[in-house]
Amino acid sequence: MIQTSEKFREHVAHALTDADLKIALTRTTGLLQSRRRQVIDEYPEYAQARIRAQAIKDHTLKHLGHYLEMFEANATANGAKVHWAATPGEARRIVSDICVKAGAKTATRVKSMLGEEIGIAEALADAGVERIETDLAEHIIQLAGEAPSHIVMPAMHKTREQVASLFDEKHGVAPDSHDVTDLVASARRELRKKFLSADVGISGANFLIADTGAIVTVTNEGNSELTCTPPKTHIVTVGIEKIVPGMDHATVLLRLLARAAIGAEITQYTTFYNGPKREDDADGPTDYHIVLVDNHRSEMLGTDLQPMLRCIRCGACMNHCPVYAAVGGHAYGAVYPGPMGSVLTPAMSSLEAAKDLPNACTLNGRCKEVCPVNIPLPDMLRTFRARQWEAGLTPPLAQWALKGWGFVARRPRIYRLASGLSVYGLRLWAFGKGRIRKMPLASSWLKYRDLPRPEKGSFMQQYNASEHAKRSRK
Amino acid sequence: MTMDHSDKPRVGLFVTCLVDAMRPNIGFASLKLLEQAGCIVEVPQAQTCCGQPAYNSGDDATTKAIAQQLIEAFESYDYVVVPSGSCASMIRTHYGALFVDDPVWAARQQALSAKTWEILSFLSDVMAMQIEQVRYQGTATYHDSCSGLRDLGVHDQPRQLLENVEGLSMKPLKDDDVCCGFGGTFCVKYPDISNAIVSEKTDAIANTGADTLLAGDLGCLMNMAGKLSREGRDIKAFHTVEVLAGMADGAGIIGSDK
Ligand code: SF4
């Protein structure tokens, strides 16, 4: 995983000047928000389902070891080879060994965030395997040589106009027009031939079902089926927190996932994979591997970050985040962007490497409001701020300003004096104007906005001189 | 409402540090409305700030000390009322996290948090106040500040109270539940992102055609009014209580240069 969250501010500066990015983000997040609102209005059991989903995840996380063992036993009985990877490096090694053993030349891949997290592209490069992204949006960004900017809509940062010119250039044959249908057809022509000849298919999983050992994937394009069925070898890489006890639990979560992610009642394709090809099956892989990845997840268990492991990767938090809408997913410089990424990234890297992410949030709470499993994202971001404060990572100027403020705020007399003086000072500085446009020490605020000239005298000064104060003191 | 003098609820008004320094009119409007609603209002002298800047920066020790100071200043009242959703929410929903290991203070904190209210929901939900004989000539649009909306459920109350203001017509604001980009220290730590967010907001405000912007939190109001002013838009901003108390005169939160 290439960790570049250190450069958050640089990325932001760049993103804010990109007019196409703004157009792309506004179009897509706007559409996803209104679709989500509509399907949730039409789902009277939503509130109950959300409570149930949270309870399912909390229960499973509390007994994670138990359910993982149950899953391993059942999946193995179904004919899967189950591997455990503590780190992304281990996961990559397992994947590349399987590919080498299979003598693979090409691998089709249906995108999963876990795959991004462990660096699947690198693993395949190490094994000398050509990687073919089969998700339409992933195909687009593979052609562009970029990384996903959203967990559900990986090419959210591109306008359809940009995609059309990319296809013109890379597909060789220009689509008849720049209709979305033509663009899709052009990608389909490119990808079809590759699906059938791939040696290995690599997928993630949206859920692992403990009592049957099945894995579940959802897509809207059917590319999971085309990736996982024709090749001889199928490799599933998945995070250990994706497990649920049984099928009923998975369906509760599936109904919420589709609604939160794309504003649909259900995804187009929901597939349960139960093991390799059996004797009388028409098709399917003969070699079927499941790689269970930890990568700091078990460290979050039992801490105040545990609720983050409820995440079902629907992306609703980013679609509703004003910061994400302003800067886009790439600004976060990490595999997981937006509010959920601002929690996961420091948890998976370090407070220092991701120091901006927990701070670059207004704590407006919309992410928590739309999260289908009710993750208190703002509280967790604040937890990181507290850890940063403890570790002395808060910028020195901010530390001093806050310490000064804290000192004064605990001493009402001094506070009164200070607020009275600042009102006086601000009024002088306003030079009789109604607003302040320039002032030392307020440059961040005044870079883009005016500051009001305060009224004459603070509230307390005015109040204490009033009749009301005399009456209530008696 | 007929109440015998001794039955009237005793309210401690917490004016908040921003109102104290930048817009005392909001404090006086709050005082007036609370008395109209039938409360006995006092303004404790020992009040300062609710501790949000420290809390949101992760400085829990300082926040705790400030919270203790506020609890001592206000715990003798029947209610604590605050003209700010975010400060009310700080006391009501976030103070609890500070005292988990301290049973004595936790009990005092819980008692205080339970009787702390954001002013518009207090007037509406607790006092069932009806606004009468107040005029404001203009067309206004309303922005829901995040903490009041999401932590405290302040949504219908201001709209209902404003319905009875004569002369006022309301225009719906597109994305009225989306953050204005203030976020306390966020706007000074990340001014460029904050600017991108507030610019969308001021565009939406201007698109309503309203001549007045109303909200329930001075921080957000200063952010939006400051941006409207910088953009040279002729739109006044007031805290909702200023209009409800009939104290919305002049140019609003940011005065004009003219
Ligand atoms: S944190 Fe919640 S809203 Fe965000 S991706 Fe995860 S489940 Fe979805």
UniProtKB/TrEMBL annotation, chain A:
It comes from Granulosicoccus antarcticus IMCC3135. The keyword Kinase does not apply. It holds the Pfam family Fer4_8. Keywords: 4Fe-4S, Electron transport, Iron, Iron-sulfur, Metal-binding, Repeat, Transport. InterPro entries: 4Fe4S_Fe-S-bd (IPR017896), 4Fe4S_Fe_S_CS (IPR017900), FTHF_cligase-like_sf (IPR024185), Helical_ferredxn (IPR009051), LUD_dom (IPR003741), LutB/LldF (IPR004452), NagB/RpiA_transferase-like (IPR037171). PROSITE patterns: 4FE4S_FER_1, 4FE4S_FER_2. This is Lactate utilization protein B. GO terms for biological process: lactate metabolic process.
Automatic annotation (TrEMBL), chain B:
One of its GO terms (molecular function) is oxidoreductase activity. It holds the Pfam family CCG. Residues 11-92, 141-224 form the Cysteine-rich domain. GO terms for cellular component: cytosol. It comes from the Bacteria. This is Lactate utilization protein A. The lineage of its organism: Bacteria, Pseudomonadati, Pseudomonadota, Gammaproteobacteria, Chromatiales.
